[in-house]
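Technical appendix A lists one of the benchmark inputs used to test multi-chain prediction within the project. The record comprises two sequence entries:
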Amino acid sequence: SQQGEEDPQALSIQEGENATMNCSYKTSINNLQWYRQNSGRGLVHLILIRSNEREKHSGRLRVTLDTSKKSSSLLITASRAADTASYFCAYDRGTGNQFYFGTGTSLTVIP
Amino acid sequence: EAQVTQNPRYLITVTGKKLTVTCSQNMNHEYMSWYRQDPGLGLRQIYYSMNVEVTDKGDVPEGYKVSRKEKRNFPLILESPSPNQTSLYFCASSSRTGSGYTFGSGTRLTVV
């Protein structure tokens, strides 16, 4: 399977703390994206990082990409209860539009 | 409002009874895709389409069909549903390869 893997599978933190989740993948990639999913609902695109980029920021989100280790991390700073959701990485290999998702990290932010 | 619309949201059906889940997007996106989401397995791609009349298999295409006769619509067809197709299905679209997907709200399908 070309699916990515994320860790931890579940993460519970206090409001105001930072949350870090990691994604590992198996192939060379064109770009890597992060999505959020609130319980059973559709996924929402958060941020995209291209294979020639190492770090990207968007508001309280920071994404890093290490193509030599085939890994990426998503950092959410100063977390809020509303950040409670599942987070997925996703990537394509640039061979078309075949897109692979990681297995997800379930984040709980305790008020 | 830019969106991907899936119907129905919930569906319970019996084994072998053909069904279609519709998907429509209003963003003039070239790329559309279907995923199924199962506990512990994440999202797996069923079929994708890079443009009208261009479709290709994803990771788990068995038991599914798709068509892309118009740019905005990408229906998912289960000719003879089986219980192992019970899942949460998502349709998604994007403007070009490598840009973010917009997802529909999902269709929860139960096959008994």
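The longest strand of chain B covers residues 42-51. Residues 18 and 98 of chain B are 34 Å apart (CA to CA). Comparable benchmark entries are summarised in Table A2.
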